[in-house]
Amino acid sequence: MSTAGNDVKRVTTHTLQEMKADGVRIAMLTAYDYSLARLVDAAGIDVILVGDSASNVMAGHETTLPITLDQMIYHASAVVRGCARALIVVDLPFGTYQGNSKGALNSAIRIMKESGAHAVKLEGGREVLGSVERILTAGIPVMGHLGLTPQSIYKFGTYVVRAKEQEEADRLRADAKLLEEAGCFALVLEKIPATLAAEVAASVSIPVIGIGAGNGCDGQVLVLHDMLGINKEFNPRFLRRYADLHGTITDAVANYVRDVRTRDFPNANEQY
Prior knowledge:
272 residues, alpha/beta, globular
């Protein structure tokens, strides 16, 4: 499938399946607005996740829980308008799918119809299987998410590594197979032991994307604002910063303020 007016080939769920089969690692990042999504897409990213992490990095909330379905659709719509290549996946926010498969389907349909995105993602295993299956009946691709599931932070009480103990690891293995069998096209594993993540990735036929889950996954995902160094307060072991935009932006704004104060800006060449 190509986008209108150019030769850019859209990444699809089938593309990701082929990448796993060929051993090509999948690169995935979050994005929440048109301008950054356009840059990320042009740089060659395979998957853009419109994450409920927008609640943290865009709105300043402590957790992902407060963001609404309407807000997720707003962010997703902006991202879609900026992208020609990447597969765009949107998080179903907290409260829109847990314990209510009909509500889950309605939420997913709204995201697909109103934003133009390509797939949805939701957190959990066997406890959300009914919602996964019902969404799939409408032909909407679903990405799963196991391990540390931020929407359940008040249940966990901490952001520590999950599935270190045998019982939880066994449950995660079983849930990964359940999500695969239900029809999920891919799976995110967050903050679990690297050996367990590699084992899961090898045991399922669908692509497994890791975040804090080691190098044995089929791909990796990071929050854009973290890897660009815009957010300086978040420093987990798994995060690699590829830029220091916090410093760059702060210096640029400070220089602008100085030039305005001293009347250096605008100069003769910058006015009419």
